[in-house]
Amino acid sequence: MEPLLSVENLRTYFYLSRGVVKAVDGVSFNIMRDEVFSLVGETGCGKSVTALSILRLIGPPGKIVSGKVMFEGRNLLELNEADMRKIRGKEIAMIFQNPMTSLNPILTVGFQIGEPLMAHFGEDKKSAISKAIKLIRRVKIPDPDIRARYYPHQFSGGMRQRALIAMMISCRPKLLIADEPTTALDVTIQAQILDLLMELKKDYKTSMLMITHDFGVVAEMSDRVGVMYLGNIVEMGEVEEVFENPLHPYTKGLIACLPLKPERKKKLEHIPGVLPSPINPPRGCKFHPRCKYAMDICREKPPETIDLGGHIVACHMYSR
Ligand code: SF4
What we know:
By secondary structure, the chain is of the alpha/beta class. It has a single domain, classed as P-loop containing nucleotide triphosphate hydrolases (Rossmann fold). Helix content is about 35%, strand content about 25%. It contains 12 helices and 12 strands. Iron/sulfur cluster binds near residues 288 and 294. Iron/sulfur cluster binds near residues 285, 287, 294, 298 and 316.
């Protein structure tokens, strides 16, 4: 089966006066129809830049240097800006961590949710707002007729995120990108928003790219996961397989930090060291300064990506 989205060897660099940051440095993955794929890793690992590159929302000093982003047979990196605008919001929509950055403070929430329907489907204002009210109800905001006339500042953080989700699903996109959609919310609201996203994903048959630093979110939401470290995917596979049988020392560290099962609490392990500077990353395997299994070759040569029957890992320990 053809994937809905195929990212092939994507490289996005930032040209700063201090040097070049290779934020995304040869990333490849597929997302199938009706699938939730997560990219997980620490802040600065390149997962959000990957998401923004898919929608070509990278501005200077950043630049997509090479690679392909195939979506339904078209390379998005080769489309002109007018065609790309038709994709954004309609075919691929993105939910950000802070909804205030996506909602306009001087327009009512109802108008903003209806706006994509006017822009992409030529709906008139009355019909778009009436559909917006239905969407507000669908994302479980109470009193939708009244709330449609509210401005974003009159909503709580959780309601703003629900409103943004309503806006993003209004055009029934084939792919929804959710970039840390619950990080700015308190814990009980986080769970509600994740439940809502999963409900909508089932109803609308939308594929999803989830960007998160939280392996707990990955376990709950995803079918497959890619673990990112300093611009590369170091491990990728079915979520259950990666959880039960993590191969890369970094993934092992991330999972060991999760108090998911009582027995894991006893062996809480922290990944030693801090994320190295992305301007001057370590030679060889970028994880070697933090890796307790590092060998001589790890300090010299970057590991190749090895496919062990759909479970992919980039680590010299698995080289044949
Ligand atoms: Fe550790 Fe070497 Fe594997 Fe890198 S390649 S994760 S340093 S063992």
